[in-house]
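Q: Hi! First time doing this. I have a protein sequence and I read that you can turn it into a structure. Is that right? Here it is:
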Amino acid sequence: MTEFWESSFIEKQTMWGFEPTDSAIATKDFFLEKNVKDILIPGIGYGRNAKVFIDNGINVTGIEISNTAIDLAKDNGLDISIFHGSVTDMPFDNKLYDGIFSHALIHLLDNREREKFIQDCYDQLKPNGYLVFTTVSQKAPMFGKGKQLAKDYFEIMEGVKMYFYDDDSIKQDFEKYGLVKISEIDEPNKNTKNAPPIHFLIIKCKKTS
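A: Yes, that's right. Below is the predicted 3D structure, encoded as structure tokens:
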């Protein structure tokens, strides 16, 4: 996975542009409403989703597997702490955060890695903190494509394995972590003209103790 993302960022650089995703904008509004001041973004990339939080007074710390992406973030004015490494090696610090936002990452992990990632993120939340994950859904165009590795888990292209959630599998994985809401969003591809939107699910959890 490290090699894949490193070579992707080397080759394609700021491949998704600089506009934040609609999910990040909606989560920023949610975090502001809940008075969230300090967040962790695992899989921060080159920071396109971080800026919308920073610009609204929220402190951001990142985790990123690609050194090139971290360099791109710094080159583009993102002056924040970013840990270099895989989310599978969390935690990188012993800090507790008001909120955690992770966009389009959890579906790239296998069953054991997803379970550890959710637990690690939950463990780094303060009491009454919020966890927001976005993931591609089974309504996404790539569902069922490529080689099937397990139930709802496919290698959609060489080096890219994806797990596709639905409401039932979200409840199964997240109910014990204070699941409060599952919502749907069609994410436009803001950097590619005429590309169809991709259907995502937004998962919100609250740590109650």
